[in-house]
Design brief:
88 residues; mainly alpha
């Protein structure tokens, strides 16, 4: 996912047991600086390795912030759940 960038197939089919990852957090950022802060935070917490952190930062610098997908609005998961609820 980091090497190839965003694909709509990356979106979760279900939120049951779903845990957001670094890419999900990056997609909520407005600026590269915000994204780098998130990446550094997750690296300090040990949630991503230094190697992965540097790879993601390099991709953002080379390809831009939206390389990893469109910006997720604050209510992204609520709208997702609403959509699934009304489909059934």
């Amino acid at each position: 996912r980091i090497e190839r960038g965003y694909s709509p197939t990356d979106e979760p089919k279900s939120l049951k047991g779903y845990v957001p990852d670094v890419i999900d957090f990056i997609r909520r950022c407005e600026t590269e600086e915000e994204a780098f802060e998130i990446i550094d935070f997750l690296e300090r917490r040990g949630e991503i390795s230094h190697k992965i952190a540097e790879l993601i930062k390099r991709k953002i610098k080379e390809k831009g912030l939206r390389y990893f997908g469109p910006k997720k609005p604050a209510d992204y998961y609520q709208r997702y759940l609403d959509r699934k609820f009304f489909e059934t």
